[in-house]
Description:
Elements (H helix, E strand, L loop, with lengths): L6 H9 L5 H18 L6 H10 L3 H8 L4 H22 L9 H5 L3 H10 L3 H23 L1 H9 L5 H14 L2 H31 L16 H10 L6
Helix pairs in contact: 1-2, 2-8, 3-5, 10-11, 11-12
Amino acid sequence: MAEQLYTIPVNDAFESDCECPVCAMMADLEKNAVEYTMGPSYMEDDNRAMTDELGFCRHHIKILYGEKNRLGLALMMKTHTDKTIKDLKALTQNKPVAGGLFKKAGVSSVGEYIKKLEDSCFICGRMEKMIDRYIDTIFHLWKKDKDFIEKVKNCKGFCTFHYGLLYDYGANKLSKDAYSEFLDVINKVYFENMERVNGDIGWFIDKFDYRFKNEPWKNSKDALPRGIIKTNHTIVEQ
């Protein structure tokens, strides 16, 4: 079964010591997508056509700029801007009339093109395609593998974004009874672990009070980066 090809990264994520296994999978996907983009693939015609069309979001262009392959990035940027210039020049041949129909909608053909460009990213697209397969695999394993259910029960919960994603996706992926059991489990691990991290953040704050100066830090020293995962589904360096 095709879904089974993705059981290894999904199982690895749920076995990891992470505040959100889905965030851990996303981090690995991003690393792999960046390495793929900046590797020999940027010379392939199919990939160059896609990067010319999609470009990169602000987040990922910063990451690419931090990589060692500046020549590869320059080549992709050159052909991408070539296409952008060509496309926009063509769209500006027919100037809109002030007060015309497009003004009611508030967007011209030029504006629509730029908005579409702003919302597209070659790396985001690769990540989204793969994470959809990983999410499908989560529910496949939930239905087929009792050991995986235990891994979910014993994980450190999820960030709020991915908790909501799993909460909603499960309704279409599982039977009525299986979905009810699934909700019981993810509700428990989500709220218990959000409260755990919330308590660690509270103790981190208390440690700045002179009255607690000599008290142990307990598990609060890394409370902020763990809290950022929970609230913003973003892994930051500690």
